Amino acid sequence: MNADHQPKVSILSTKGLSIVVTGIVLITALLKANSKDIPEIVKIIFDSSSFSLIGWVLAVVFLIGSVLSMVFMAISHDKEIDRLVSERNALQKILMEKNHE
Amino acid sequence: MNEIIARLILLYLVTLLIAAFYWGVVQKILMRRFLCRFFAHRDELRRLAIMGIEDPSSASYKQLDGIISILIEIAPVYSLTTFVWAYIRNKYTHAPLNTKSNCDMSVRLLELRNKAIRDFVLATFLNSPLFTAILVIFNRINSVLLSKYVAYTIADFTTNRAYRKA
Question: Smallest CA–CA separation between A1 and chain B, in Å?
Fold first, then answer.
């Protein structure tokens, strides 16, 4: 693929939609909150057991996801190599038949 | 209120991590698989020409070869906004999947074209899941929609490429 002809991802992409939406909600909530409440919010976050639990859950999900992704990539890579080998063999066969004629 | 803000911060961080994992790992790996499938379709098409089953100088062959090559280039970045821009820019221009070539296409070529379009829609599902789901639902009502969708995409890409070359 030629890099010059590669289209660019548009700025208004749906790629970051979830981040943008949750970010807007968060910023709105922070703006509405009193500045004296900020230390209390930080305390809630770091004292919360659910916060650390979600961290562990995410870590496990990402680990399993990464392993599965690697397995999928390896299978996909092997399949592509097999396909290329069969394509090469078929073309070599055609070339050899042409040379015999 | 403070409890809600703390939970929103947590939600934001979780979304950020999941998005990073999806776009950085999952989407890239799955998209590579789809690109391999597009290359397989193009190889199959060219093998038909090498074996003398299809005529490589025919308009329908050239059209399909062009379509698959363009789909390979645009599939990794295609999303709702790309489609909207393509639609706006090409609303009144020519239809690239012209009907005359479609009529001339053999059953094999039509089958290959449909496979490539199906794979393209699946590949765009990785970039824009919501948009593609809506598109597929609307396609149930109007079956020409998917062909039009690909047609606008290709028209836009061809026009832009011509601009870039000029």
Answer: 7
